[in-house]
Each structure stands twice: as structure tokens, then as C-alpha cells.
């Protein structure tokens, strides 16, 4: 079983810098790392690349040949990669024995929240090569300086989580720059906990320019709150403490921590982790379309005892019509 990260996020959010920093950090603690560049628009790579999509297809060639812009070109490249997944599988083969994999993806957000090509690529790799991958979704901390942009970042995180159905960690990147953006409307915990967005609505309401969007903003915030899935951690590339913390989350999220447990890991389809004060909490989200079986409940109990919170998240219809099992427990 091979573990790794799918590094995604909007353009310029710091994906390539993260892959470089994380690979150096993991190497320092003794893990073999392979960074896979799947962004055909990545011209200057700061890391040593184990596999490079440019050996298969170049964005520039696609744009010239098919008269496409950069966005259409990237969709084409991902479709092409999906069709030629054998190429990627064969390139990954030498690393799947003992390496940790970091996938550096393009920054076009529709690829992760709308189109199916990237999701299919990831699913195929996971099945064929028995990979355990976690999505690291980077969002520039700059968005916290504007409550309206922050709401859109939350919606993007939510739709990406639901679309990819991977263990998922949202990260506010470039947190070292946050003070340079001026005084934030709320302290940082507010932005990372994503608990009560009514404060955000109230803040937006103070600005007369937002008056006509009041109802829309309220309803968008309610969507994020109703799902209750999004929370965020923060990260700065030069901060080793953040990297250590993130690594802890990652090992939990892709089940590295329970790799020795029985084969029941396949039951989990989505997972969220959260840090509150000094305790680390873990939320396991079991996306089910039916009432959990006895065996699944048993798994939940065991995870609760060992790692923290486990929570059943079921299909909306089922949740409304029957009693939701939503139990939480403190980490031991
Ligand atoms: N201060 C600071 N700058 C960062 C950090 N992470 C990334 N950057 C800078 O942000 C810029 C964009 O970083 P990239 O790593 O190229 O971002 P990307 O998401 O790969 O960009 P695309 O490939 O265009 O989607 C670069 O100038 C980085 O040096 C960070 O943690 N702190």
C-alpha cells in the first residue's frame, strides 16, 4: 500500500512550493519521496521531478494545435492523461514499493469541482496501484482579508471535497503573509473553524455594496454550514511546526495510522480532520446511502476510541427520513 497527497488549489495558491517544501521535510525525516508533476503549465520546477506530464503532453502544443486558451488547453491535457493513464501507471511503477507520492496538479479549479477527468485519473490510480491518497487543498490566506472572497473559498472547498470524495484537508497557505494584508475582520480561529458564519454575514451586511447580495450570501453560508464538512488548517512553507502538524493530519487522513488494521478501510469515502486547542480531533465521514451496518458501526467505535471523533454522514434523503447517527467522542 502506497501513501501520498494530491496537491490542489487555485492558481498561485502555493502548490508547487508546497510540494517542494513537503518533499524536503519528508526526506529529512527519512521517507523516500517522489514528486509527480501533473501540471503541464509548470515551467520552472523547484523540485526534482520523478514523473513529469510534459513528457506526455505540453500545454503550449495543445493550445497551438487546437486553438485553445490556457483553460481549455488544461482540460484537454487532463482528458488526454485520462486516456493515457497506462503511461502514468508505468511511470509510477518504480516508486510504488517504498516511496511517498506527492502529486502537483494544475490550478484550474473546475478540474476538481466540475470536470470528471481528474477524479477518474485519481480513482484509477488508487485502484490499480493500491494508493491511499489525501487531497491537500490550498487556499491563499489572502482571501481571509475579504469576507466575500472567503465565502467563495469555502464553497470551492466544499464542492471540491464532495466532487473528489477523497480524504481531504483544507489549508490556508502563505499564512506568514497574513499580517501584511491589514487587520482581519475576525481572528484567525474564526476562519479555520468555520463554525458560525452568521458573523460573516453580519459583517458583510455593514457594507452597503453588499446589500443586494444579502439573501444570496446568507443562503450560500447556510449551504456550507448545513454540510458541516469544511474546516481549515493553516500553513506557511518555512514553518516546520506546521509541517509536522500537517503530517500528523495526513497520516490519519489517509489511514497511514491504521494501516495495520483490517481491510475495512475501504468503507470510508471521505474524511475531515480538525485541530482544536491542544487536542487533535478526527472526524471520519462515512458517506453512505443506507443505514450503517453493525460491522460499520463497530469500525466507528474503534476509530472513536483510538483517534477521536467519528461521525456518520449519510445521504441527505436518509438523514432526513430516519434518525441520524451523529456521535462524537473525545480523543483518548
Ligand atoms: N510568503 C510565502 N509565499 C509563498 C508560500 N507558498 C508559496 N509562496 C509564493 O507564492 C507564489 C506562487 O507559488 P506556487 O508554488 O508557484 O503556486 P502554484 O499554486 O503552484 O501556482 P500555479 O502552478 O500557477 O497554479 C510563489 O511566488 C511562491 O514563492 C508561503 O507559504 N509563504
Automatic annotation (TrEMBL):
Record family assignment: Belongs to the GPN-loop GTPase family.
Keyword terms of this UniProt record: GTP-binding, Hydrolase, Nucleotide-binding
Organism per entry: Stephania cephalantha
Keyword Hydrolase: yes
Name assigned to this protein: GPN-loop GTPase 2
Cellular component, GO annotation: cytoplasm
Signal peptide range: none
Role: Small GTPase required for proper localization of RNA polymerase II and III (RNAPII and RNAPIII). May act at an RNAP assembly step prior to nuclear import.
